[in-house]
Amino acid sequence: MGSSAISPCAACKFLRRKCTSECLFAPYFPPDQPQKFANVHKIFGASNITKLLHDLPVHQREDAVNSLAYEADARVKDPVYGCVGAISVLQQQVAHLQAELAIAHAEIQRLHNAAANSGSIPVSSKDLLELGAGGAGGSYDTAFTVSDDALRQQLSEQMSSQMHNITQQMGSQLAAQL
Ligand SMILES: [Zn+2]
């Protein structure tokens, strides 16, 4: 029954009030994370958080608090843009990746077309020019097949290592902001 053995949640400790078993904040602001409540309170205000939590069904409250904590933390770190700053950096990265992906797709398509043409049509100087081979000597088919596969392999390795790097960057940026 009595609450003497319960240590107050971070919110009640911050607000210097008694934490009861019905405390609205206790499930989401454990005593070992004082900064979480301090930031949320500084940015949104305890009474606004109370109203918001009251209006939400219980199963959505944890997500709401985590979102508030993320937004408040971002606002503390970047008072002008807050989490919008992080979102726009990530959106720029996504746009950049999409552009690179489109270029890679176009290049793969170009290689497919070139390979298809080289299979059925006798090699002419026009084909060689279009393929960028420039009419250099040597066996055209062999040279093209080798460079086609090599180029595709190279492109695919480049794309996957770039995707890997950027995924890691995005992950560590998010982790740093949480
Ligand atoms: Zn409490």
Automatic annotation (TrEMBL):
Residues 7-108 form the LOB domain. The keyword Nucleus applies. GO terms for cellular component: nucleus. The keyword Membrane does not apply. It is found in: Nucleus. Pfam families: LOB. Residues 87-114 form a coiled coil. Its main location: nucleus. PANTHER family: LOB DOMAIN-CONTAINING PROTEIN 4-RELATED (PTHR31301), PROTEIN ASYMMETRIC LEAVES 2 (PTHR31301:SF83). This is LOB domain-containing protein. It comes from Chara braunii. The lineage of its organism: Eukaryota, Viridiplantae, Streptophyta, Charophyceae, Charales.
